[in-house]
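Q: Could you write out the predicted structure for this multi-component system? I'm mainly interested in how the pieces pack against one another.
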Amino acid sequence: MEECPDQYFSSYEDLDAGAKKVYAVEASNIADLAKEVVKENKLDHIIEVIKEKVEDIKIPKVDAIVSEWMGFYLLHEGMLDSVIYARENFLKDDGEMFPESATIFVAPCSIPSLYNNWNNVHGVSLKCFAKELRATKNLRPEIVEVKPEDLLGEEIAYCWVNMREDTAEDLNEFTLKHVVGASKNGNYQGLCVWFECNFPQLPDGTGDGRVVLDTSPKSALTHWKQTVIVLPHEQDVEEGEPIAFELNMSRDPTSSRRYNIQLSMLSPEDVDHPLPCSCHFTKCILTKAVLAQHAERALIENKMDDEKVGIIMDEPIDDDDDDS
Amino acid sequence: MEECPDQYFSSYEDLDAGAKKVYAVEASNIADLAKEVVKENKLDHIIEVIKEKVEDIKIPKVDAIVSEWMGFYLLHEGMLDSVIYARENFLKDDGEMFPESATIFVAPCSIPSLYNNWNNVHGVSLKCFAKELRATKNLRPEIVEVKPEDLLGEEIAYCWVNMREDTAEDLNEFTLKHVVGASKNGNYQGLCVWFECNFPQLPDGTGDGRVVLDTSPKSALTHWKQTVIVLPHEQDVEEGEPIAFELNMSRDPTSSRRYNIQLSMLSPEDVDHPLPCSCHFTKCILTKAVLAQHAERALIENKMDDEKVGIIMDEPIDDDDDDS
């Protein structure tokens, strides 16, 4: 819960059976309430609430750091820098981070709540209203629930944050040029952004498999919903049509907890297509077929019938041929 | 929709087939957008958007006034006074008001989102947090979704607003003393307030029966949800236990669009019980039985077997006997 202290440092022999000592660090007044909650649950012999910024405290090194630092689209007004400071100063070498990594995904999408829903409201056309509404969304990304059926192409991992190793500087800027083939006919109206967080397995091996917080449109709705970057003008796309863009997120120079986001629409001819690519450019269709053939031949020749073979090519093909 | 002009005045021969002339009155800048919407829908020969307060305009008398003036719990920051001004100045004698009446209902309830939900949050007791949370709700009623199963007694009509006749002065103050028997064992934590609005039948007799906007917990959720007045301390009640209260709503002297609300818990012995009363006081149980007997006897004696008989008594019984 966000109302509770953001950061916990715990020293444990068996986390599952209960930590021996927990430092709960929270600078705001909510720390006072946290102290009451600790007492109410008769845990004051274990949990010590420290009402300070983590940058100002002194505690022994700990076995694990647990923090709910994630903002909208992961990075928005998040507390990541403070968590990295805590790791660099208070985590034992073999300590665990909860979560230990996070990935941002992006995919093209429709946004009915800002476009199509206004075309016919009980028989009234409200397109000019929707246009004004979108104009208010140009300055900041919009937090909405995106339905899986509104996604218009496969997602790509935009960036990966390694909570065990990344420094604050590693998070200064992310950028990606990408092309994706539209997965169906539709109205391309924005870029949908979401994240997932991965947690370490518990030390005694309990828990069944990966522990993941997934905020994808295909998963159950969370507090974070999804974030959409709204296009100023929609674009009709056909199945297989390449959608090319460049997305840049960089820290705001005046406020390091904020990121500036820039989305540029690119011509699909000017971008290296991935391998394989889902778009309907002739080169991509041919390459996909060749890759499939290679994979099949490799399977036969090496008699590796029971194993999957992945083809890895180092150089992206230079696709300057548009047959759309 | 709230974004659209709040008040429409229409002159029609056949509302169902379309009004001849509509005056849409809206003082804020949203009127400019309304003008665009009218154009977009090619209705500018019928709808005239007037960007002024209704108190400042001059238009001919109209056949109908349509207005979405309802605030939370009906009266909160509503536009009712302006609608009454419009009726008194611009409605023909045989004109129609949409809606034509509204009723506020109240019933005792549980509020899990402010009480019981915090007793065990993934194994953690957060009662002290819930107490702080409730303390922030003492100054204003809370807008929440109340589930039908959280109602703890039958609702009573708190007040009835007649849009055809009531003056602004008629709405200055409402007050009600009431007793209701708890419909089941539970935690009495607040008073649930909601409203319904009734609309006139269309003049050509179309439409199937009453047209009602119902914001009851038993109906589909609306923008208004329900309003709860939170008790500072919860009270365990048993089925049949009388719950007595006095509820007063009066205009804020400094802002006539706001109401001050006062809820007083009363001793059930100090309040006249309704007839019949659902509580388990001996007098109420006996009176209920006597009323039922009377009704049966009247049916037999008057051979009115096919008609229902209502017993009306002028004087409430004086119930000063508590057998709970």
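A: Regarding packing and overall arrangement: DSSP finds four helices and 14 strands in chain A.
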